[in-house]
Amino acid sequence: MAVRHQLIRKPPAEVWSVLRDGDLYTRWVIGTDDSWNRDGRWPAEGSEIGYAVRLGPFEYQGRTVSRVFEPGQRLELEAMNGTSSSVRIAITVQRWGEDTLVVVDEHPLSGLMARWHNTFLDAAIQLRHRAMLSRLARLVESGPEVDADSDADTEAGPGQGGPRVDA
Fold first, then answer.
1. 164 has pLDDT over 50
2. At a CB cut-off of 8 Å and minimum separation 6, what does 9 contact?
3. pTM of the model
4. Best mean pLDDT range from 23-32, 71-80, 139-148
5. Other C-beta atoms within 10 Å of 27: how many?
């Protein structure tokens, strides 16, 4: 299990404005070259975003399903890496004074990564998380101010009452 945290110097509403926008995942999730909202409901439970990973001339497309969405607190995702492989990614968001503490907990659920899961894989995931959370912090901290009393912590999607950060 790989757990990593990051202090983001903005209030939780601003972190959620980025997490709630499936089109922005490419800007902070390491390894993705493109992402898109598959059903217009992201991040409601059961909703999906698609993603593309490119290695040279090859492209792989996968999907990430929102399994748990507790607005303003927690988002748990299952990234599908093929027909039989998946990874659980749990993101918790906590107010930390005027700032936000984001904790990411990731581990393989099924497939090759689950069978080969070991401390070396966890170390690689830790390195990925360090870069990913730094990107998330930069994206949130450079974005427009969001009213901390806004409805950013509701289930409404971008353009439906919640703030949006444009790519």
1. no
2. 99, 137, 141
3. 0.81
4. 71-80
5. 16
